[in-house]
Amino acid sequence: MATYAIGSLVWVEDPEEAWIDGEVVVVEGDGIKINCTSGKLVVANASNIYPKDPEAPECGVDDMTRLAYLHEPGVLENLRHRYEINEIYTYTGNILIAVNPFRRIPNLYDIQVMKQYKGASLSDLSPHPFAIADSAYRQMITEGISQAILVSGESGAGKTESTKMLMMYLAFMGGRAASEARTVEQQVLESNPVLEAFGNAKTVRNNNSSRFGKFVEIQFDQRGRISGAAIRTYLLERSRVCQVSDPERNYHCFYMLCAAPSDDVERYKLGDPRKFHYLNQSNCFELDAFDDRKEYLATRKAMDIVGINSDDQDAIFQVVAAILHLGNIQFAKGEEPDSSIPKDDESHFHIKTAAELFMCDEKALEDSLCKRVMVTRDESITKTLNPEAAAISRDTLAKVVYSRLFDWIVNKINSSIGQDSHSKFLIGVLDIYGFESLMIHSFEQFCINLTNEKLQQHFNQHVFKMEQEEYTREEIDWSYIEFIDNQDVLDLIEKKPGGIIALLDEACMFPRSTHETFAEKLYQTFKDHKRFSKPKLSRTDFTICHYAGDVTYQTELFLDKNKDYDVAEHQALLSESRCSFIKDLFPPPPEESSKTSKFSSIGSRFKQQLQSLLETLSATEPHYIRCVKPNNLLKPSIFDNNNVLQQLRCGGVMEAIRISCAGYPTRKTFDEFANRFRILAPDVIHEGTNEVIACKKILEKTNLQHYQIGKTKVFLRAGQMAEMDALRNEVLGRSAIKIQSKYRSYYTRRGFKLMQQSAIQIQAVCRGEVTRSRYEMMRMEAACLKIQNMWRMCLAKEAYKILCHSAICIQAGFCGMVSRNDLQYRKNTRAAIIIQSYSRKYIAQQHYMRLRETAIAMQCACRREVTLRDFRKLKLAAKETGALQAAKTTLEKQVEELTNHLQLERQMKAELEEAKTKEITKLQSDLQETKAQLAETKTMLEETKAMLLSEHETGKIGGEQTPPVKEVPGVNQEMTNKLTAENVPDFNQEMMSKLPAENIPIISQEMMCTLTAENENLKALVDSLEKKIDESEKKYEELNNLSEERLQQAMVAESMIIELKTANQRLEEKLSDIEVEEHVLRQQLLTNAPSKKMSESLSMDKSQIPKNPNKTLDSDSIKRRSIEKQQENVDYLVKCVSQPIGFSEEKPVAAFTIYKCLLHWKSFEAEKTNVFDRLIQVVGAQLEKPEDSEHMAYWLSNTSTLLFMLQRSLKATCTSSGTPTKKQTSIFERMTQSFRSPSSANFDVVAQVDAKYPALLFRQQLTAYVETIYGIIRDNLKNELSSFLSSCVQQPSGSEANSTDVPSDSHWNSIIKSLNGLLSILKNNHVLPVLVAKIFTQVFQYINAHLFNSLLLHQENCTFSNGEYVKAGLDTLETWCNEATDEYIGTSWDELKHIRQAVGFLIIHQKSRITYDDITNDLCPVLTAQQLHRICTVYGDDNYETPGVTPDVISSLQVLMSASSNDSDEDNKSFLLEDTSSIPFSVEDISSSFHSGNFSAVKPAADLLQNPEFQFLHD
Fold first, then answer.
1. CB atoms near residue 29 (< 10 Å)
2. Domain, as residue range, for 1457
3. Is residue 174 part of a domain?
4. Annotated binding site: which residue ranges?
C-alpha cells in the first residue's frame, strides 16, 4: 500500500461523480483527510484512495498502459479528457475502447484516413477501428492465421456502427475489382438494413437495439482478396414477438408494414398498430427521426440488392401480417369442459385473415390452436385446450413462424453473397450484445450474461497471453503472476448435470413444474456456492455474482421462455400451405416425429451455439473493441462517470486492468523514467551515462524491491510508482524551500537597493532644484539688462527711420517730376515720326498696288493660256499610259490564272501551255502597239515645241514694232477683272484688238521690258516642261525594259515549276515501288518506338500514291540513290546526337544540330517522312536510365530547346481537306521571291515554315517527352528527400541526440546537399531557369505536405521541442533559398507556408494568452479550422511544460468546424495536405524564356562538320 504525504494529489470515491480528485491535507494513520477540487472535505481510508499523476497530459494518452497509475480513476479521467477533445478511441494495450460521440465527426472515416492506416502499426497512428482491422488483416496475410474482431458493449454504445467501419476497411483492403456486378463486401454491408428491420427493436436504452448476435465471416483467398462471406446469428429474442414491455417496441418490420403504402395495407388488411395485440402492449408506436414508411421502402430496396425477388418479398410481409392477425385472436370457454373457441366475430375475422395469408384452411388453423392430438400406441386422442392453453399455442405458433422467417432471410442473404469453400482463412467480426444489468432480468438477460461470461473468459485468457508475451519480449521474470479466472461462474450456469441450465431443462420436462419449484430446486442445490445467493425479499429470485457485478434474475417466465415445442399440428398445418414460400419454411418432419409435439430447450440449444462460436474464436487470433455509451440521454458532449465506469466493468476493461495490476502495471521507457525521476539522483545524470544504467542507479538509490528491468522499459509493481512519486515530491519540497529562501533573500536585497537608489535620487533632485533656482535668478538679471539695451536701441532706431523716410520722400518726388517731363517729350517726338512714316508708306503703297494689279492680270492671262495647252497634252498622254497599265494588269492576272491552273489540273497541261503561248503573243503585239503610240506621242511633243517657239518669235517681233510712249497710265482695272472672271481661253492679239479704243493704253519702254522678262520666264517654264517630258520618256522605257525582263523570268520560272513537278511525280513513283519494304521497316520500328501514333499517322495508303507506268530505269536509279543517301544522312545524324556532345554558348549542340538538319532537309514541309520516328526513338531510348539525374538533365535541356525552336518555326497550314493552300501573290511578287538570295532564309536561325502533319505530330510527341523527363527529375528528388523528411519532423531523444557520430541536423544537411546537387546538375546542363524553378517549387510543395501531415498525424510530434527542431531546419532551408538566385528558385520558399505557420504556433511560449482572432488572422491565416483544431488538441510538451491554448479557443474552432460542415459539403475533406504531380508549365512558358538571337553563335557538332553531306551546317 502506498504512503501519502501532505500535499499529495489523490483520487477518492464519490457517490455522484464516481471518483473525484483532491489534495491530502491531514494524515492520521490510515485515516486521510482530503480537500477535493469540488470543495468537499472528505475523510477516507488509505486503502480506498488512489494516487493521481500530476504530470498526466491534459489531453490524455492514446494507450492507457502508458499511464503512470493504471487504476479505475486514472482510466476514467483519461477517457473523459479524450472524449472532450473528440478523441473517442483509446487503446488499452491491443484493446480498443470506443466512446460513442452521438454525432458525426468529420474527416474520421474517409478514404484518406484509410490510406494513412494502411500498413501502419498500432502505435504509429492514433487509435482507430481501422488500425484494429489493418492489424488483423496483416496478421492474416503474414502469419496465415484466421482472425476475429469481437465488438461488444451495451445497447446504444455503437457496436453496429463500429462493425460497419470494420467492414468498410476490410472491403477497402481486400475488395475485388469494380468491374464485377456486386462485390461480396458490398452485399454484406447492404444486408444490414434487412437484418435490422427484422432483428432490431426499440429498448429502454437504444432506439435501434440488435436483439440477436451476429458473427460475420469474411473469407479471403491466397492473394488476400475477399472471396466469400457468411453471416451467423445467435439467440434471436423470440419472446419479443408476443411480449413487449413499456416503453419498448416490437421488431421494426411490424410497424413498417402498418405504415406501408395503402395498397399493401389493404392487401394485408392492416391499419393502425394500436389495434394489434402484439404491438399495443406498449404505448410507444413511433420513434423520433425514424419514418416507418420510408424505412419500409428502403427495406424493400435493400431486399432487391441482396437477391430477394419481389415474390419472396411479398411472401415475407404476408407472413409478418399473418403474425399480427394471429395476435388478435382471443379465446373463450367452449361448451365442453377445458375447451376453447374464438371469443367473438373479431377473432373469427382475424382467424380467417390469418388463414388467407398463410394460405391454409381456416378450420384447420382454428383446430391447431384449440386442440392437441395425443398419439398412443393403439390410437390417437384429440384433446381440447382451455383458453389459456390456446393463447399459449397461438403465441407459440407466432414465435415459431417468425423465428423460421428470420432464419430463412439469413440463409437467403448467405446464399446470395456466396461462400468460398476453398478459402484458406477468414476474418470474423462479432457484433453481439453486451452485459446487461437492468431493473428486471429474465431468461434473455440470463443467456446474454452467460455469453458475456464465456467471452470474458476468452478475453481474460487473451489479455493474460498478451501480458506473457510482453514480459517474454522484455525478458523479465513473470512466473509468480496469478491468472484471474471465472470458470466457477460458468460451471454454476452450464455444468452437467448440476448446472442452472440443466435444472431448468429438467423442470421444463415435468408438466407440473412451476417457477416456484424451479427456484426452490436452485436454492437447495447451490446454497453453499460462493457465486450464488438468494435475495432476502423474494422467494423466487436468485442472484449470481458475475465478473461485472451481482445480477438478480426473476424466474417467473424462465420455464415458458425456455420451452420450444415443435407442435405437430402447427407443422402439419403450414407444411400443407398453398403458398410455396410458407411451405418451404415448414418442411415435412421425419416420420417418427410428425405425430407428436417434441420438447426442445432454448437454453441448451443456445449453449451449443455459444460453444460453436467459442470454438471458432479459439481457432482464430482475437482482437477486441469495447464500445462505451457515455450517457443514457443519447446526446453528445455529455460524459456520465458512473455510467461509463459501470460499462467498463461490464465490458471487462477493469478486469483486464486487474490482470495488468497483478503483474507490472506501471511500464516506463528508459527515457521517460530517467526524465521523470532524474531529480532523485542528479549526480547519475550529470555523469553522462546511458539511460539504462541511469535507471538502474535511480532504482537502487530509492531501495525499491521486486521491480524488473526489461530491454526497453522499466516495470514496476502496483504502488511502487506512488512511492517513487512520494520520494520525488519530498525532493521537490526541499528544493522548493531552498528556492523560497533564496528568493526571499533576493527580494529583501532588491528592496534595500531600491530604497538606497531612491534616497540618492531624491538628494540629487533636491540639489538640482536649488541649483536651478539660483540659475533662474541669474538668468532673469541678465535678461533685464538685455531688455534695457534693446529698448534704448529701439528708440534710437525709430527716430532715425523717421528722418530717413522724410529725406527719401522728398528726393523721390523731385526725381519723379523730372522723369515725367522727359517721358512726355519723348512720346511727342515718336508720335510725329510715326505719323510721317505712315503717310509716306500709304503714298508708296497706293502706287505699288496699282502697278502690281496690272502686272498680275497680264501674267494670269498668259499663264492660263499656256497651262491649258499643256494640260490637254498631259491628259492625252495620261490616257495612253492608263491603257498601257491596264494591259499590264491584264497580263499579270492571266499569268497568275495560268499558274494556278497548272498546279490544280495536270491533265490540261498541254492546253494551258498553248493558251499561255497565245496569250504571250497577244501581249507582245500589245507591247508593239504601245511602242507605236509612244512614238506618236513623241512626234506630238516635238510639234508642240515648234509651235511654242514660233509663237515666241512672233511675240518678240510684235514687241519690237511697237512705238515708244511717254506716259504709263494704269491698266483698265475693270477690263482686267472681266478677263480674269470670264477665264478667256485665248488671250492673244485679237482679243486685245477687240477692246474699246478709248480704253487701250499706250505701252511705254518700261512696260516692254516687263513683258520681255515675263516672256523669258515662260521660255524657262517651257524648257522645264520639256525636260520633265524627256525624263518621263526615259522612265517609261526603263519600266518597259524591266517588264519585259520580268516576263521572261516568269516564263523561265514556270518552266522550272514544270520540271520540278515532273521530278516530284517520278519520286512518288519510286516511293510506290519501295512501299512494301518501307512498310516492313516501319513495323519493325513500331515495336521499338516510344510512340506508335506518329508512325501510324505517317503510314501511306497505296491508293494515295500516283503511279506512272512509263517510268524509266535512269530515273528509278537516281531516285533510289537519293533515298539511300538521305537515309544514310539520317543514320549518321542519329548516331551523332545519341551520344552527349555538350553545349556551345550555353546552348545544347544536339538540339541545334537536329533543328538545322531538319530545316535544311525541309522535313517540316514533307507530307511523309520517317526522320521524326528515328528522332523519337532516340529520345525514348534515353528514358531507360531514369535514375541518372545528370543524364536526364542533359536530355531535358536538349528536348526543351528543340521544342522551343519547333514552336517558333512551325505553322499549321493544312485545310479541312488535308491539302496545303498557297497564298495568292502577283507575278511581280513571285518573281521577286525567285530572285531572292538562297541564304536569306537562314538569316535568322529560327525560321518560319509551313508545317505538315508529321512535323506537328512530332512537336506534340516531343512536348510529351519534355513533360516525362521533367517528372522523372522531380520524382527522383522527391524519392531522395523522402528518406530524410521522415526523420526531420521529430527531434532525436536520449543517447541519439547526444551522439557525436550523428549530428542533430544531419538530416536537414542531407536535404540541403541533395538540393545543391540537383541545382548544380541543372545549371551545368543549362536547363531553362523556368523549368528549374518549377521543379524546386513542386519539391518544396512536397516537403510542406510531408512535414505538415507528419506533424498532425503523430501526437508526439506536436510539442514545443519538436517545433524548435523543425524551425531550425526550416531556417536552414531559408538560408539555402536566399543563397540561390530567384531565377532558379522562384517562389519555392512561399510553398512552405503551412509548415512554417504550424511550427511558428508550436514554439510560442504563452499559448494560453493567444485568442481565437490572433490564431486565425495573424499566426495561422492559411490553416483551416480542422487543421488548427487538430494542432491545438494534440499539442503537448513534457520537457518545457508549455501550456496549450485555452478551452475557449478550442470551442471557437469547434463552432467554426460545425458551421463549415453545415454550410457546405466538406465532410469528406481531410485536414491533411495532398501532394500534386501535375505538369506546371506549358509550351508557351518555354517559348517566352528564349530569344532567337541567342542561337547565332552556337556551333554544330564537330563530327557532323567532317562529313561533306553536312557542310550546310557551316552556314
1. 7
2. 1300-1472
3. no
4. 153-160
